[in-house]
Write a structure and sequence with these properties.
GO terms for molecular function: ATP binding; ATP hydrolysis activity; ATPase-coupled polar amino acid-transporter activity. Its EC number is 7.4.2.1. The chain has 250 residues and is an alpha/beta fold. The protein has nine helices and ten strands.
Length: 250
């Protein structure tokens, strides 16, 4: 059974039909990177997986449970899913450690001592054991994003969603975040990653899905989708991304 299974997913914002019948799954331990142009529906797909956006039609199953069912205990289902956004969404008045303990205590009802232990372990996991008392304003963008990853990991998710986690970072800070994500992949974390980092997708993903116009145009191993795509739409996108100086013939 797939960890996540999406069936005939449709999502519209007014007259804008963003997702047009997505069928997609993610296996336990799999790293799937979703690529495609801006506006193709990538982030909306991710937000529908944990119902930050409610689809108009279709179903999302997590570990076999239909979380789109109105009778589903959504908060309990969401506890299985960690999400890291483009913007870090840290509480500015809380230290890195406190940012990683607050949800553990309020949602998982862990004791302060247990939440503290788990948070410290995950901050060490992302290379920030020396920044536990720092506030977000005292951290670089890359460090803030790594705190956000540690915060999500502290909830012991079965699945991690990453929505373009490096897009808001200065180029020299991107590497530290991608290094943490590579480490998680090696540890066997199931990850669904929306990214423009083609080198990362090629190296780390088990599967790459190319989206355009609200549909998955093609998917498969990175060597196929990035290295030798079948579809012209994929080839055109990759030419533009991999060679920004390339001009399409008119």
């Amino acid at each position: 059974m797939a960890l996540v299974e999406i069936k005939n997913l449709h999502k519209s914002f007014g007259s804008n039909h963003v997702l047009r019948g997505i069928d997609f799954s993610v296996e336990q331990g799999e790293v799937v990177c979703v690529i495609g142009p801006s506006g193709s529906g990538k982030s909306t797909l991710l937000r529908c997986v944990n119902l930050l956006e409610k689809p108009q039609q279709g179903q999302v199953f997590v570990r076999g449970e239909d979380i789109t069912d109105p009778d589903c205990h959504l908060d309990a289902a969401r506890q299985q899913i960690g999400m890291v956004f483009q913007q870090f969404n840290l509480f500015p008045h809380l230290s890195a450690l406190a940012n990683c303990t607050i949800a553990q205590r309020t949602v998982l009802k862990r004791s302060p001592a247990e939440a503290d232990r788990v948070a410290r372990a995950n901050l060490e996991r992302v290379g920030l054991s020396d920044k536990i008392d720092a506030f977000p304003a005292q951290l670089s963008g890359g460090q803030q994003q790594r705190v956000a990853i540690a915060r999500a990991l502290s909830m012991d998710p079965a699945l991690m969603l990453f929505d373009e986690p490096t897009s808001a970072l200065d180029p020299e800070l991107v590497g530290d975040v991608l290094t943490v994500m590579r480490k998680l992949a090696l540890e066997g974390m199931t990850m669904l990653v929306v990214t423009h980092e083609m080198a990362f997708a090629r190296e780390v993903a088990d599967r790459v899905a190319f989206m355009d116009g609200g549909v998955i145009v093609e998917q498969g191993p990175p060597a196929d989708v990035i290295g030798d795509p079948r579809e012209e739409r994929t080839r055109t996108f990759l030419r533009r991304v991999l060679d920004p100086t390339h001009v399409e013939p008119t």
